[in-house]
Amino acid sequence: MHGIPSAYLQTKGKTVDVERTELPGIGVRFEFETKRGVRLGIVAHREGRRDFILYDPDDSDTALDCITLDSDESASVGELLGGGRVVEKLSRLHREIDNLVSRQLLVDATSPYADRPLGDTRTRTRTGASVVAVIRDSGVETGPSPSTVLHVGDRLVTIGTEEAVGKAGRILRGLE
User: Fold this and answer.
1) Separation of alpha carbons 50 and 66, rounded Å
2) What's the CA gap between 51 and 65, in Å, rounded?
3) Is the dihedral of CA 118, 121, 126, 128 positive or negative?
4) Rg of the chain's alpha carbons, rounded to an integer?
5) 83-172, which class in CATH?
6) Which residues are bridge partners to 9 per DSSP?
7) Lowest mean pLDDT: which of 47-56, 58-67, 74-83?
8) What is the pLDDT of residues 11-41, one digit of tens each?
9) Residue 9 predicted with pLDDT over 50
């Protein structure tokens, strides 16, 4: 339960301290406390599933309840909670960090990765760039998992160096 505070959520000028803990072989756990003192956790599994955990206020090591959502349900909840602002936040981040670019890479009808899982592209391994969101007609899926299936018309929000993102685009088009 005691991770390193490494992320902060900004909401209307207020900051929420979020503890991030790597769970080897599983994914990442994020925990935070609400203004009312309720401790919540989210375990982001590598395959896309999310566990939402409500902790006992008298014992932070005891879960009172857990709700599990699959990757589609998680994406929908993320959209409801403001996931649609991811592109705006990435744009701001791009301006703040030298050498970091963000691009929306289109999955077109000629892509060898249309109707295949994102993991098949091996983008991060091959380029060092990361796909941080998938924008499609149904909404925005933030933090897509390797099992997220890509469809014609999807736009992959990809961050990395100019060279890495360019190579990711060429991979997506089947040129590398």
Assistant:
1) 10
2) 10
3) negative
4) 17
5) alpha beta
6) 16
7) 74-83
8) 444 566 778 777 777 878 888 888 888 889 8
9) no
DSSP string covering the chain: ---EEEEEEEETTEEEEEEEEEETTTEEEEEEE-TTS-EEEEEEETTS-EEEEEEETTEEEEEEEEEEE-HHHHHHHHHHTTGGGHHHHHHHHHHHSTT-EEEEEE--TT-TTTTSBGGGG-HHHHHS-EEEEEEETTEEEES--TTPBP-TT-EEEEEE-HHHHHHHHHHHTT--
Q: What is the rounded distance in angstroms from the CA atom of residue 70 to the CA atom of residue 88? A: 26
How many CA atoms lie less than 13 Å away from 116 in the CB half-sphere? 13
Residue spans per domain, the chain:
4-69, 83-172
> Rounded distance, CA 52 to CA 42, Å?
5
